[in-house]
User: Which sequence fits this backbone?
């Protein structure tokens, strides 16, 4: 014996159906449009208090309790990096240079420039012709 589906009225009485959107996006009975000037997220984006970067930045600004000069961790790291660079540490020296003057860009040399440009132009023409057809 086949089990018959309940009629629409019976299903509604039993609470087995809900109005769904035509695209199947779930229950649409409780959706309301925003009033003009009203935000959908009144509290805004949550603060990044728990991310590692913000915690590290916070800690770097604190005074080192072991330092007699009462300097921050950030100041001590800068001084330590400078000492390493003065003593010949290439990595520390490179880091200081890149922070002061910006990172040096690698130069890229192209050979056969005119030939390359000509081939590029021809390829674009062929592609445009294919798109027209």
Assistant:
């Amino acid at each position: 014996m086949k089990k018959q589906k309940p009629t629409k009225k019976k299903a509604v009485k039993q609470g087995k159906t809900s109005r769904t959107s035509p695209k199947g996006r779930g229950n649409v009975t409780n959706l309301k449009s925003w009033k003009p000037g009203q935000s959908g997220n009144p509290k805004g984006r949550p603060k990044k208090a728990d991310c590692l970067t913000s915690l590290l930045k916070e800690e770097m600004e604190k005074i080192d309790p072991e330092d007699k000069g009462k300097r921050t961790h950030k100041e001590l790291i800068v001084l330590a990096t400078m000492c390493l660079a003065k003593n010949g540490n290439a990595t520390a020296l490179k880091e200081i240079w890149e922070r002061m003057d910006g990172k040096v860009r690698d130069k890229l040399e192209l050979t056969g420039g005119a030939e390359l440009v000509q081939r590029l132009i021809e390829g674009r023409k062929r592609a445009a012709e294919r798109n027209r057809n």
